Each structure stands twice: as structure tokens, then as C-alpha cells.
Amino acid sequence: MDIWPLILLNGLTLGAVYFVASSGLTLIFGLMRVITLAHGTSFLFGGYLGYVAASATDNWIIGLVTGLVAAGLLGLFTHQVLIRRFQDDDMRVALITLGVAVIGTDLMLAVFGGTATQVPFPQDLQVAVQIPGIGDYPLIRLIILAIAVVLGIAIYLVIARTRFGSIVRAGVDDAPMTSATGVNVRVVFAVIFAVGSALAGLAGVISGTLFPLLPGQDGSYLLFSLVVVIVGGMGSIPGAAIGSALVGVVSQFALVVAPTYAFVLTFALMVIVLAVRPQGIMGRPA
Amino acid sequence: MSTQTPSSSTGSRWKSWITAQNIVVVVVLLLALVFPLVVDRPRFWLPNIGVRTLWMGTIAMSLVFLNRYVGLLSLAQMTFAGICSYGVGYFSVTMGWPIIPSIILSLGVGSLAGYVTALIAVRTKAIYFMMITLALSQVFYSWASQAIEVTNARRGIAPIPRPDLGFVNLNDITTFYYFALFLAVLSYAIFRYTAKSQFGLAIQGIKDSPERMSALGYNVNRYRTAALTLAAFVASIGGVILVFDRNQVDPSFVSLDATLNILVVAVVGGIGSLGGVFIGGFVFAMLQNFAQDFTDRYMTLTGLVFIGVLLFFPAGLVGLGPIIRRLFSKRAKTSASTGSSETPIAARRAGKNNKKGQHK
What we know:
The structure holds two protein chains of two kinds.
Chain A: H1 4-32, H2 39-57, H3 60-83, H4 90-112, E1 128-131, E2 135-138, H5 139-161, H6 163-173, H7 175-180, H8 185-210, H9 217-232, H10 237-257, H11 262-276
Antiparallel strand pairs in A: 1-2
Helix pairs in contact in A: 1-5, 1-8, 1-9, 1-10, 2-3, 2-4, 2-8, 2-9, 3-8, 5-6, 9-10, 9-11, 10-11
Chain B: H1 13-17, H2 20-38, H3 42-70, H4 77-94, H5 99-121, H6 126-144, H7 148-151, H8 173-196, H9 198-208, H10 210-215, H11 220-246, H12 256-269, H13 276-290, H14 298-312, H15 320-333, H16 342-359
């Protein structure tokens, strides 16, 4: 049996997790032109709280929702209390959210400890399905891939088709002008920041279902999200989809080809994209 | 902030050197010189506070130089220092070469790393540049923790004893402290000199208006690359102090935590001030050593201090002087206060405008 289709599918499901996380980052960047370095913190925070809720209620869906809401609230708090006043100063926002990340890492280590935890999911889903050309494949990975695809299409449609989406797009192009037309841009900013963080939290629960949650993942997922957003182009949802699929697949192939340097090869992808197309694959020239 | 007048007549040269900034520099330098004589337990204070302040400060200073004079926030400075540390370990211990050529070669390797980073990142600006340098630093970290034949993976290269350089024996901790102090002062002098040179004025012009400088015939990217390489060289000097302070080198030198620590030092000291980083480094080294006495969560404390400084004192601890002065003069003029957090921002904006005006 050929292993390449299996690796490809593994890469795509991993990319699904990256996509959910990085779509939040790219949304925040696209509208607000700021980068939140607390994105990995939202990811791990959502993952841990999702784990607590899912274990307590024995319900995976409640775990997902808890992770989503908890990270969203954390994002809203961060935005309202710490960075709202400095929104024009992207460097300062990046540094303040970095401070949040430092505190978050330390406190989560204190509360949840250094051991690996995994989000429980229903027995019915812990089965394998037969896929032609690959063989048995865990159903849960396919479900997560489907969640990511549906979510991606939903975000895209909301932004492309709805009134709120048109406000967001207008805000991306020219925030002061949008504000002048009577839109309360500050509310839109707060909503987008909360939604972006919530997506990271959701990604945390999803990731915690597939892989163990560990301290330090906040840093690594922040980096992966950054790489995805840089590769895909900042502020573009399709770009984030392409970027995450690329990063996921490349990292899985690299694990097979050169296990020791898998991480380096993943970043090499970013360097190549930057050298050829500094604004990212789907990014607009700045 | 100091006033920087590019041209000064030779007659008033000495007078122009007597500024508030230079007086503070001399005072701090004198304090640093007598530091080994006044502390009660030199065996604890010199390595844990003194030398640590000096290497953290030197590396953070290269970050501040790039931020202030080039307008680029590089998160790879700790990595350049770490690369140099690895160089010293690899050449002198693994290869068994003599120490002085090893150090010189390592400084070259660290600078080369800065040059290569510049080639990749120099076309990007501001926030993009920051993210790319962060990502590149993590590439090196992951490589260093896995490349067993060069870096000995997670175990690192040890021991790297402090050498007897012939003219100076670094084995003695007091001598090593003064050696580190000399390197730190040298780095400071390099940056101060560069900032006033023709080259320094050009990069500051590029920072303020790349388009205009480009139109004047300056190759913007080449200047940025040169500045980045210089900053990587100074970071490498910090790496030399670092490797002899720890007597080993391992991947934790270039981890995300180490990178963030340098950033914290720069921000707490004052991201706009070359010398302030040493104050930031001192505060940070004190926190690292003594916070454990009253709390287990010293990273949380560090994060809170970091955010507090960013929210209320964006110019860092060295910015406190002007703020206090301004507060008093403002009280004298009007009774109305605009709120403590607004003052420094407004001040910084005003400062920015002044600078722009000067360059015209």
C-alpha cells in the first residue's frame, strides 16, 4: 500500500486545525492591521477550558462551545481593557499582547500543570472508516476536516455576502471613512477581535481532540498561525485556507522525508514564499 | 530625549558633549566601575546581576538601535547572540581551535547570520518584519535543538571554560566582569558613533521617509541590510559575554523565552534609548534572582511589569525623568491634568514631529 495519500490526508486534517486557528488571526489583522501575539494563548486557553467542560459534561459539543466562548471572552477583555486605546499603534498592540501571552503561559502552567491532556469525544465517533486507496482512517479526523471546511465557507460567505461583512470589508479598506458613514467601527473592531480569539479557542479544542494539549503549544500554534498568515497573505480567508493546507501537508511530508528537520522545512516554505511573493500567496500588495 | 544636531562647530564641540544624557551615561558608568567593590558578596552579585545585566543589555541594545534608528523591531537579536555563542563552543571545544581566533570567527558568523536574515526580511516593514524575524529565530531554535552533529542537540556544548587570553585572565570573576563591561561600553560607543556618522544620518532619514531617501539616490534596502548586520555584530558581542558567563551553550539560549526576555529588557529600559537597556537589564536580573523569594509565578510578574510599562511609560524607565519633569512644569502652568496614561503618548508624538522637523 502506498503511504503518500495517507500522508496527504494527515496533512490536510492537520491543516484544518491550523486553518481554524489562523483564520482568526487573519481576520483580526485584515480589519484592524494589528497582530495579536496572544493568539496562541487564546488557543491553549480555549483548549483547556474545552477539555474541562467536555470531561465534566461528557459532551464533546459543549466542550467545543465552551472553548469558543471562553477564548472569545478573553479576547474581548484583552481588547477592551488593554489595547483599545492604542489601536493605531500596531507595534504597541503586538507588544502588549505579547505580555498577555507571557502571563497566560505562566498561569496556565500553574493551573493545568505540565502533563498532557486530551479532550474526550463520543465513543460513537471513535471508529475508522474505509477510504479507497488509503484504508482505515479515523472518522474524527474527517469530521474535523469537514468542520474546518464548513467554517471556512461560512466565514467567507459572511464577509462576502452579508451587511456585517460589507462593513468589515469597508473597514479593511478605509476605517476612518467607514466610521464617517455612521458605522460604529469601534464595536466592529471589538466584535472582530472577540471572534478571532474565539476561533483560536475553537481550534484549541479541536486540536486537543486529535492531539494532546501541552504547555508550550501556545507558542508553537502562534508561530504556525503566523507562518500560515504570512504564507497565505494577511487578511485573506482563502489565503489562510491555502496557507494552512500547504503548511499542514509540507510538515507531514517533511516528517516522513527528513524527520529531524521537519520544523525547519516548514519554515523554509515561508522563506521561499516571502522571497518570491512578499505579500503572501493571496495577499494584496501593501 | 537628547537633541541631536547633526552639525556642530568645532569651537563648541566640548560644550555640546555636556548634555543631560552624557552626564547620566558617565554616572552609570562610574557606578558600574565601582560595582564589584561595593557589593557584599561578589561571588553572587558579579555573575548573577552584573555580568547578566551586561550581556542582556548589550543584546537588547542592538534591538533598541534597530528600533530607534532604522525603525525595525527585530526579534532575532537573541538568536544572533546565540549563534555566536554556538560558534565559540563549536570552534573552541568541538573543533579544539585556539580561543581568540574562535571568538573572532564566531563574531563573523553571528554577523553573517544577521546579513542573511536581512536579505530575507529587509523588503518587509514594521509588523511583518517583526513576525519574520520571530519565525526565523524559531527556525534556528528548532535546528539547534536537533542538529546533533553541530550543536549536540538539546544537551548543547559544555563545558566552555572561561579562557586565559594571555593579556587578561577571564577565569577571575572580577576580571571577567570588567572585560564584559569593556565590551558593553565598546558596543555602546559603536552605536553612538554610528548614529552620528554619515551612515547613521542616512538610516535615520530612511526611517522617517524611505521614499524621499530613495528618490535622493540612496539604496534603501542596502542601508537597512548594513544596519541589521551591524546590530547582529553587536548582538554577537553580547553572545561572547553570554557564553563565558554560562560556560556552556544549549538551545535554551535561543528559545522563545530568551527572545522575549530580551524584548522585555529593551521595553522596560526604554525602547528609544540605547543606554537605558542596561537599567532594564539590571531590573530584569534583579527580578529573576529575587522574585522567587516571594512568588513562584515570576513570569506572571514579569508580564505584568511589561504590560504596565507599555501602558503607562512607553518610553521605559529612562523616560521617567522627562515625564516627571513635564508633570511638574505642567502643574505649574495649569491645574488640569489629562490623565496619567495620556501624557507620555502625547509626548512621544510631539517628539516624533520634532524629529521630522529637524531632518528638513
